[in-house]
Every structure is written in structure tokens, then in C-alpha cells.
Amino acid sequence: AEAFAKFIAYGDKFSPASILLNIRNINNVKLEKDKISLTDDEYLWVVDGQHRLEGIKMLFGSGLEYEDMDIPVIMVNLKSKFEEAILFAVFNKTQTGVRYDLVEQILAEQIKRGNADVESLVNEYNKAGTKILKELQPHLKAIEVINILSDDKNSPWYNLIKFPNEQNKISEKKIIRLRSFSSSLEPLIDYFKRGSNPDAKTIAKHLMVFWDALKEIMPEAFNDPKSYVLQKSTGVTVLHTVYPKILIAAVGENTSIPKKEELVDGLKKIRDFLGDNDENFLFSEYWNAKTGRAGL
Question: Cα separation of 253 and 139, whole Å?
Fold first, then answer.
């Protein structure tokens, strides 16, 4: 309740969901043009939204500044507390939340179109007590990178990433979900942020070269990607985490985009150093879904 009071006190905030109210005796209700009146012996029973109402009460006595606000409500006519309990259960058990990767994709698209000033929005929502935009920021840059990788026909990830709400006929040939790929990019984006902090296009070019180099030294895993976990959540998480170290080993302390030949040479040297064994992550067999170390 306290968090909700703080949220609606700042900026153009609003109640994000309707409060569900019940009138048990409809005969005690008078409807006019823009007003509903109840007799003195009738009550509005709160079926769902108790915490939001308490938050509004707290706001009135909190000393925080606020302006007139709209609070959406739904009114129903149920005759008993038992029926209210059933409706409460239906309301809270049957609704389905929106997939988080869909939320990220929509926000990233709006930012790309120039429809949002992210920094000012983050600051505003921080004041209101919610960190959702701040938590989303790393993912939004990751999604920019993913869109480039998925759309570029020369990319090793072209048309292989599953986007939210895609039809099954489209997504069944793809091998990794957007959310998994997005999460795997966090340490890589953080690494670049500590240096020159390149844009999404530059990071995408890094990854195109890197995955092209991996494809050259582990062709079996790329020829049959569904039989290996290299291009699934396990593989991308590991390889995006170690990429900065591979980059340093191959070309030194330099965050500019390397040549594919440089990375191939660096990867081969690392593979030779680790030796021919089942723990060497630069052999395709390591990533075999059924028999490889990473697939077990």
C-alpha cells in the first residue's frame, strides 16, 4: 500500500488496474447521468484492490503533493460474500501475465523510433519507487544487438532467434529464445561499458565475427544446431561471458572489431592449449546435447 501511494504521487502516474467493487442489493442503487448514488444502508464491498485503496488513503495523509487522479473501478452485482470470493479467485487465478521478453521488445522498438527519453523516464520512475526501467536498461541495449544479428543475412544468427508471440510455423525452425540470448549478453555489454561503451551496431559486429570464427573451428555444431547446445542458452551464456578474455588473448587490450582470421587463430591456440579432452569447450563434441560435457 505504501509503495502504491508513493507511485501515484509522482508525475502522471495512475492506478494500473481496476478496483473491483460489488453492490449486493441493486435495489439500493440510483443511477443518474454521471453519478451512482447508494442508500445509507448499502455498501460498496471491495472484492479486489484493497491494497490500492489503502495506498490512496495513505497518500491523502502523507503530506506528499498530488493532483486529481482517475481511479478505474469495475462494479458488479453479486448477492453474497461467497460469490465475491469466487469472483476474486477467477480474477486472480485466470489472468495471464505478459511475457517479459515481449515487454522488452516493445520498449526497445519505441526507443529505436525515438519515442522515449530513457534517462529522464528512469529518473522519474525511480522517484516513484519503481526500478523497472533501470532494471530493463541492459536488456534494451541487448535487444538492439539481437535485432541486428537476427535481421542481417550475413549474420551467423540470421533468423535463428525466437521472438515473443511468433507463430509456431515461424519459430519452430529457430533455436534460442530472445530472453535467453538477451540475458547472455549482459556480461558482454557490461565489459564494453567499462571501456569505450560502443553502440549496439558495433557490439553486433563483434558477435558476428566471433560466431563466424566459432563456426569455422566447430562446423559440426553449426551444421546440426538442434543436436548441440552451443547455440542454445548454455552455449551463448558461456561464450559471451568468455568473449572478452578470448578477444584480449587474440588481439590484446583492444575493443575494436577484430578480423575473423585473428579470432580463428586465437581460438585455435586456446583449443590447443586446453588439449584434446572432453572438457575442451572449443571442440564440437563438448556441446553435443546427448553425449557432450555441456549437454549432460
Answer: 26
